[in-house]
Amino acid sequence: MRWIIRFTLPALLVLPVPSAHAASPIDLTSGFYVNPGSAPATWARTNPGDSRAARVQSSIGSKPIARWFGNDSDIGSAVANYTGAADGQDKLPVLVAYNIPNRDACGGHSGGGAGSAAAYRTWISSFAAGIGTKPAVVIIEPDALAAYDCLTAAQRAEMAGLLLYATEQLKAKAPNTYAYLDGGNPGWVAASTIAYRLNEAGIRNVRGFSVNVSNYYTTSQSATYANSVNGFLGYAAKFVVDTSRNGNGRGDGWCNPAGRRLGVTPQAGGGAEMLLWVKTPGVSDGTCGIAPTTPAGTFNPDLAIRLIDGT
Q: What is the CATH number that goes with domain 39-309?
């Protein structure tokens, strides 16, 4: 007689896909990278006779500040060189990918971006490849998701697809990077709406999201907003807060308002996964507020001093 033995296998558990597969870039490095070529550091170095130079360098130029990358002619090499310089010092660089078509759709001061969807796909693919296996932090397209209401339906659909592609490229090509889709700020778009847009844009491909980029809300207000977004996302995505100019809170307006102050310097923890200086202190938001003749993206030492003094 031949016996037939059957084994019944237990049902497989279906677990949620983790939001990222990176090794921790924080653990792989010994602190944040200080860019000697940042706008405030460069200004202080090239204006040694200016009475403001030493204060600008001490309070801003010597601190870790994100570097923003736009429509560079050779983005892969630019990113590779920057992250390579940081890696050579065992430091963690923070980069901002800022080149999506129709960027700054609401404010308009920093408009531009890649000339087409195809050009952006090429650009962001090269951006991610430039990082490669080096440790890095990337903020993906500040204001893009929050500015949907200033776009047509076709533009929104295109942007959502491009952001999704960006998250896929960073996940595939930059395994030791923590990437964060930008989620606006507490005073702009409802948390439930941003959560929907983050999901649509592929937040589960990356580490999480950023809040308060280039704005002035306190860290506490920003963390409260981020936690509310997580409630609508349905899981605890990691988030980072831009503290570069939030030392006095928001005040009146978002475009070079008076009375703002530098926030706490970059660190891991502090009420978020990281507190970062994403916006460069002293760089204008546009031709507005207390810098009506300084174009967006231009360093103004008077703006820098006012942030140092809180005036």
A: 3.20.20.40
